[in-house]
Specification:
- This protein has 348 residues and is α+β, with helices and mostly antiparallel strands.
- It has two domains: 162 residues, 3-Layer(aba) Sandwich (D-Maltodextrin-Binding Protein, domain 2); 129 residues, Glycine betaine-binding periplasmic protein, domain 2 (D-Maltodextrin-Binding Protein, domain 2).
- The protein is built from 16 helices and eleven strands.
- The strands form four sheets. The chain has a three-stranded antiparallel sheet, with helices on both faces.
- Strand 7, helix 7 and strand 8 form a beta-alpha-beta unit.
- Helix 3 packs across helix 16.
- The N terminus is likely disordered.
Length: 348
């Protein structure tokens, strides 16, 4: 039988325990509210799954990874990571679920892209950019001149690829004075075969030598050296790249793209490639709010080239370029997310 004194002690202990539990709950709630007001990560946010981006090896996908990751981490509270690899390997990882987010899926570079999307494990959310171009470029000063540098327009009427033979002497090959020189694409790239066949079919190789640069670095060096010296240059290049963001280059026009002309010896312009944003299907369940953000993510080739040029000029990283983008293009990215998310990112 319990004594009156013992029963009283138990009653007092029970009230103390209840009071302590109430203070603990109130304290945690206050801490959580205070953390949220400061834009800090809460206990609930810490347990969110890590979202993995694909790093397929080129600068622009890394830049877009960093922009999206910054917004996801600071705005939505998800930790992020990257998984490197080649295009086929990383896209396979996306389909298997090892990778969650693919910021730059170059659709025509993936022969089975449509098949993968049809299988349903990869969800295409939208187009990051589709204004990318490739072909033969010349410095714009050859056409328009550059008064600030004292450069005259040596080929004011040069507009198309087919007009190059009229100007072959302007691009004279120092190793063969009887022909001009065109810097071609990188050996081993599919575009190298396409470009050589195109130029042969246009009759341009009768007055030009096709010079293989050996590597993308060598090709870029040939262009930048000529540009800095204000000399004529014609060759293959593509967008988006830091060079196109840094230098004023003009893409020589070609016949408008059609399947008929393309299949007849590539007698037309290169078709623009839709570069899409894709996610693994599990993202619809584990991070639906992030999926909504990524559906709205849309930039351009020109903007991407500008960001890459910023990196080149300032010798900085993709992460620092992303922070530059967040500051410089606030009007753009704030349209991708709800106002409260935008505020969290800006306050960070």
């Amino acid at each position: 039988m319990v004594s009156i004194k013992k029963g009283k002690n138990l009653k007092i202990f029970s009230w103390v325990l209840i009071l302590a539990l109430l203070l603990l709950v109130t304290g945690c709630g206050g801490a959580k509210q205070e953390a949220e007001e400061k834009g800090e990560t809460t206990v609930q946010e810490v347990v969110k799954p890590t979202l993995v981006f694909a790093d397929a090896g080129w600068d622009s996908i890394r830049f877009h990874n960093e922009v999206a990751a910054y917004i996801i981490e600071k705005g939505y509270g998800y930790p992020t990571d990257v998984m490197p690899g080649s295009t086929p390997i990383t896209f396979q990882g996306l389909e298997k679920g090892d990778i969650d987010i693919y910021m730059e899926a170059w659709t025509t570079n993936l022969p089975n892209y449509d098949e993968i999307i049809a299988r349903g494990n990869v969800i295409e959310l939208g187009i990051n950019f589709d204004d990318n171009y490739q072909g033969l470029y010349v410095p714009t000063y050859l056409i328009k001149g550059d008064p600030e540098r004292g450069i005259e327009a040596l080929a004011p009427d040069l507009k198309t690829i087919k007009e190059l033979p009229k100007y072959w002497e302007l691009f004279k090959d120092p190793e063969d004075n009887s022909k001009g020189r065109i810097f071609g694409a990188i050996p081993g790239w599919e575009v190298d075969k396409i470009l050589q066949e195109k130029l042969k079919n246009y009759g341009i190789l009768e007055s030009f030598n096709y010079v293989s640069p050996g590597s993308d670095t060598a090709l870029a060096t040939s262009m930048t050296k000529a540009y800095e010296m204000g000399e004529p240059w014609v060759g293959y290049y593509w967008e988006p790249t830091w060079i196109m963001g840094l230098y004023d280059m003009t893409l020589l026009a070609d016949e408008k793209y059609s399947d008929e002309l393309w299949n007849d010896g590539y007698r037309c312009e290169f078709p623009p490639v839709p570069v899409t944003v894709c996610v693994n299907k599990e993202m619809l369940e584990i991070a639906p709010e992030v999926v909504e953000f990524l559906k709205n993510y849309k930039t351009s080739s020109a903007l991407t080239s500008e960001a890459l040029a910023y990196m080149q000029e300032n010798q900085t990283s993709e992460a620092e370029a992303a922070r530059w983008f967040i500051k410089e293009y606030e009007e753009l990215w704030t349209k991708w997310v709800p106002a409260e998310i935008a505020d969290k990112v800006k306050n960070s």
